[in-house]
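User: Just a sanity check before I run the rest of the batch. Below are the structure tokens for the first item. I only need the designed sequence back.
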């Protein structure tokens, strides 16, 4: 009974994940150099205010989702080993100094619902041999 309850929101969670992805893409569109610019003109101040608002919204949304068992994960942050149960390899490429089967790029972050994979992360994987 508890298992059914834990995953009753699965369809809703899958639909919500796309909105989280779009919010993530919007935040990624602001270049790092503009966030750290020394001189801030009127337009740059507006951009930074918008960015800060989006960042706060993302933070609140992710905390709310986590409270209900939905968590986002990014395997390239920890340079994880490729795991076919959690990752979907979209491409492989050689990279000197990196170990085979290591995730080096996340194209789309994954999600877990109460510890179970809701959506695998789409990743690039090192393949030297």
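Assistant: Here's the designed sequence for the first item:
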């Amino acid at each position: 009974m508890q298992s059914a309850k834990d995953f009753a929101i699965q369809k809703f969670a899958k639909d919500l994940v796309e909105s989280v992805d779009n919010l993530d893409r919007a935040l990624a569109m602001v270049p790092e150099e503009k966030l750290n610019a020394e001189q801030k003109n009127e337009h740059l101040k507006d951009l930074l205010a918008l960015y800060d608002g989006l960042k706060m919204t993302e933070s609140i949304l992710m905390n709310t989702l986590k409270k209900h068992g939905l968590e986002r994960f990014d395997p390239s942050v920890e340079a994880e080993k490729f795991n076919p149960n959690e990752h979907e390899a979209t491409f492989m490429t050689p990279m000197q100094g990196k170990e085979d089967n290591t995730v080096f790029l996340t194209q789309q972050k994954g999600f877990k619902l109460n510890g179970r994979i809701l959506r695998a992360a789409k990743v690039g994987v090192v393949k030297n041999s």
